[in-house]
Amino acid sequence: MTIILDGRETSNKIMEEVTSRIQEQELKPGLALVLTGDDKFSARYVKLKKRKAEEAGIYAEFHHLEETTQKELIELIHNLNENPKIHGIMVQLPLAEGLDELETVNAIKPEKDVDGLSPNTLGKIVMGEEAYLPAGVEAIIELLRRYDLDPEGKHWVVIGSSNFLSKPLVSYLCNLDVEVTFCKESDPSYKSLVKEADIISTEIFEKHVIKSDMLKENVIVIDNGNTYEGKKVYGDVDTDDVMDKAKAITPVPGGTGPMLISMLLRNTVKAAEAAK
User: Fold this and answer.
1) Which of 58, 64, 88, 216 could form a disulfide with 53 if both were Cys (CB 3.0 to 4.6 A apart)?
2) What is the pLDDT of residues 51-77, one digit of tens each?
């Protein structure tokens, strides 16, 4: 029977653990959430992060810069870097038009880069050093761990090209005992490559493009895609179709998505512990 990797249930458990961890150590973690531009959906999502942080016992600041310059944004990050109340800094991407993403995330101190987005953090991941993993990467590894699915000794096929998920995931996997095949979502060869995968991670953003006949038996499927049709969201993988093949699968919605906030908040607590 196919294992459903339930991100909602797992995230709820992690949030309970985060809250207990804060209370037991009498920590006062601080998280700064930075949003640029006027996108209402991004604002709603960042406000949700703030609410979840506060429910867990984390002090949270929301800096919404609807209109700003690159200089002002960097000055804010520098101030947050030096603020002892703040242990983690999260900059919501993408930035507003005209702002420099690389310069912005690079300005975050490594010890406060709890969303794992800076080039410094990616370099540490490549080198196999201790670092805060991007939330999406940590969500994948945590779900496998919670469901007793060993990521090692497997052939991974990672499809996608984002700087916040697929690239750092491949970098992380290169330091494990695995075989990794990396393919951009724009490369049609991925449709044949997935046949060899023990574990696939998709970031294609195309509705139900992965079908059962493309996969081998007992594959583990990590679906990170999301394609909206009205208010309904679909993954890259046709879940109903692949159930006969998959050993385990993340549903969309309800798979890796709900894990992202809990991973960010757990990293914030780790940063507060490290700063004690």
Assistant:
1) 58
2) 999 999 999 999 999 999 999 999 999
Q: How far apart are CA 97 and CA 49, in angstroms?
A: 23
Asked if 167 and 236 sit in the same domain, the reply is: yes
The two three-digit tokens of residue 31, written as one number: 């998280």
Proportion of the chain above pLDDT 90, given as a percent: 98
Same domain, 36 and 94: yes
The three-class DSSP label of residue 151 is coil
The DSSP element (H or E) to which 156 belongs, if any, is: strand 155-159
Query: What is the DSSP code string of 185-219?
Result: TT-TTHHHHGGG-SEEEE---STT-B-GGGS-TTE
Question: 166-173 and 119-127 are packed helices; what angle lies between their axes, rounded to 10 degrees?
Answer: 30
How many domains does one find in the chain? Answer: 2
Encode 47-85: b = buried (16+ Cβ within 10 Å), e = exposed. Answer: eebeebbeebbbbbbbbbbeebeeeebbebbeebeeeee
Q: How far apart are CA 113 and CA 59, in angstroms?
A: 16
Domain span including residue 195: 135-249
d(CA 68, CA 64): 10
Q: Which pLDDT score, from 0 to 100, does residue 276 have?
A: 85
pLDDT tens, 230-272? 989 999 999 999 999 999 999 999 999 999 999 999 999 999 9
Q: How confident is the model at residue 100 (pLDDT cuts 50, 70, 90)?
A: very high
As a dihedral over the C-alpha atoms of residue 54, residue 60, residue 62, residue 63, rounded to 10 degrees, the angle is 180
